[in-house]
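Fold it.
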Amino acid sequence: PATEADSTQGPSTMTEACESAILSQLSSGDDAAIPNTLDWAEENKLNHETVVGAIKSLLTDAYVTADPLSYQFYDLTAEAKGVVENGSPEVAVLKALIEAGEGGLAVKDLPEKVGKSASKIGMGNCMKNKWAKKDGGNLVAVKTLEEATDETRESLKALADASGKPDALDGKVVNALKKRKLVTLVKRNYYKVARGASYAPVRVKKAADLTKEMLDSGSWKTTPFKPYNFLALGEKVGGGYLHPLLKVRAEFRKILMEMGFHEMPTDKWVESSFWNFDSLFQPQSHPARDAHDTFFIKEPASTVSVPEEYYERVREMHEKGGAGSIGYRYDFKREEAFKNLLRTHTTAISSQMLYKLANQEGGFTPQRYFSIDRVFRNETMDATHLCEFHQVEGLVADYDLSLGDLIGTIETFFKKIGIERLRFKPAFNPYTEPSMEIFGYHPDLKKWTEIGNSGMFRPEMLAPMGLPENVRVIAWGLSLERPTMIKYRIKNIRDLFGHKVDMARTRTAPICRFQEVE
């Protein structure tokens, strides 16, 4: 006999109980079967869906065979059940008209007597069956209740008595009931279950893996194993995907290398204030050096050392000036210069590279450098600003360079990324003079938008490094995020970079290609 499964059991326990009940039912003989799982589940107070799950599980190990079967029946709606109990709307309308007497009932008063829904359906069917007629604005009965046959109620009752069998009524009658939404066709699926090739009264779970314990005990010799499918592809391996920022970075990097630039080592995010600010001739009282704009490091709070001779020349330039400058005329503080911080720009690396270039063996040689890396600023975050972003920076150090060389270099780079229309606006930077903001025409927005900054490093910055007097350094920079957002049509920077980024976008982002303007 089948066992009853407790409805309070968990899904796994209930499935196992169903499996046990099915195998027990089939244990009475070789021809034992369950002809209809729906009826069998109801008899044994089992959930049919759980029974089907147990059958599918047993099928995998050939404990049973299962033939899928189905049958259809018509189910009466709640309205139809009301018709069977109380009569159809057309009969209700006829009763109301008879009660109203010979003069009948005004059409507008009918909903109050039988209800809005019943009056609408019932009046139409009364007229169709010729049980009533219109007399001016009234509806008058022409048949008595004894003369009228409630065919709708009789059809629904006959269908209910026949358990909804589709052949219980004529097709036209059924279609009429369906049209009135009194019945719905229901399909029920079930299985006929019999013994399988590997049938046993009790299921023995097959092992999926060979374990160390099996080898140690020797139980692997008698343990049944699941068959291995050596043709299965296995789970799809998810490969790595380049973030859109990295795709644009790779394209920028290739373009700059094509222009003869060498990449600077920018893998050090923590810098001293000396390299980040002081070596750039940025005064120690500058607002950018305030904690509101810069992230200072608590531990270690200060750097260990800087090139001492160079430090003294930088201090001298700040306090007294040189190279045609009077300096800032303040007391330069060593403790301020030695403060550690998260670099606010990659120009901190540029100043170190220029210092090495000036003091290398054999003397100065012209160079082109670039960097693309992360920088940090204590800014208010919004749709276009984050506390950390990526800066693209390029510089050229050579003899007798001019502002025309800077403009030409910038135009060459931006043409290679497809931006031809550029404008330059005078600006102020602490360590460049002259300085220019770079504007490009945005074809989608149809307006000019700022895309970068540029300038020539001041003599007060270059002289302490030891560079020859006629060496000039031109430099320019832009963020990596802005062109990436334009390229990938991203409106909010937080959808591009940070913890809110949609990983699916990273997987599906197309390859970045910039079309060079001829």
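The longest strand covers residues 64-76.
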